[in-house]
Specification:
The chain is of the alpha/beta class. The chain has helices at about 5, 20-35, 45-50, 70-75, 75-90, 105-115, 135-140, 155-160, 180, 205-225, 240-245, 260-270, 280-285, 300-310, 315-320, 335-345, 350-360, 365, 375-385; strands spanning about 10-15, 40-45, 95-100, 120-125, 145-150, 165-170, 195-200, 230-235, 255, 270-275, 290-295, 330. It has a 6-stranded parallel β-sheet with strand order 2-1-3-4-5-6, sandwiched between helices. The longest helix has 22 residues, at about 205-225. The protein starts with a helix and ends with a helix.
Length: about 400
Amino acid sequence: MNAAASGHGPRIYLVAGEESGDRLGAALIHALRAARSDIQFSAVGGGHMAAEGVPSLFPLGELAIVGFAAIIRDLPAILKRINETADAVVAAKPDLLIIIDSPEFTHRVARKVRAKAPQIPIVDYVCPSVWAWRSGRARAMRGYVDRVLALLPFEPEAMVRLGGPPTDFVGHPLSEQVGQLRPEGGPASRLEGPPLVLAMPGSRSGEIRRMADVFGAALGQLAVQSGPFEVVVPTVERLEATVREAVARWPVPARLVTRPEEKYASFRLARAALAKSGTSTLELALAGVPMVTGYKVAGLEAVVARLLIKVPSVILANLVLGRNVVPEFLQEDCTAENLSAALAPLLSDTPQRRTQVEAFGQLDGIMKIGQGSPSERAAAVVLATIPGI
């Protein structure tokens, strides 16, 4: 029985697997309530959803698992939570299930729910990276996902090409931060005053330990080549000790910032950035900060990645722009010499710098920035997917 026939407001169950998904879920709950005040929510989530008045079935931290070895070690606990979550969703009889990112967890929940209660529509918020690797997942998703909400503008076309479920581009949450990330004086103002270089070696402790030494060596070489500059390392409180220990070995001093307002201020002032490939590259591009990127993974993961990854770049900014404007140095190419040589031209008004700045200027149109919030667009699609309302 759908919401309209039963006489109560729509019932929506949200399932997230990590903090980023919890934040997306909380923003979506807020937008859905603004559109319809009678919606009832249940969730597997974290503190952000709880702050919206939707507590979690169990603590989200139990699912914060990264890496092949950790998944194998914790498999029995993960499987227990998958079954528990699917059973809770089926028992709640919602009008819609929204799974949010973390496909290793949420997609298994969705498949079990579809098998036990095929009448429940399922929306997947955050398109899995089927365009990059394991493309067969797109077609498989048609069996248990009715609609996908994509954060990146090229994903709907990719899902059509790969035979996936209907997909709507709703926008990336980073697009709501552009006002805080960009300097009031425009891109040219970044060339005024002493240079500030952002160093972003990763958002997980393993990445930081793996990338910090090569980043520090690159910045040391850059200081010899280009003269003095300030280094700022944006991080979060839970990683501050790890980052502080790592940068203590650098040949140049580095200032850590953990509060959001400090991070935004450093982005507005930054002349250039040295970043690990990942979401941070899109954040820097939206801010208009020219960058050089690098990444290394362990030997086995590198072999697997080379076999599976099918995209011309691993840099989100490059993929969104559709061309490789940001230099990237991966694995054996990720050396201090390569990183510093590519970073040096970005500290002054050079063709290399202008190429990136001009390309980043196209992102507002590509990502629909200023055309409503991503959570509002996502809420509209969600409501249109609920039967009978």
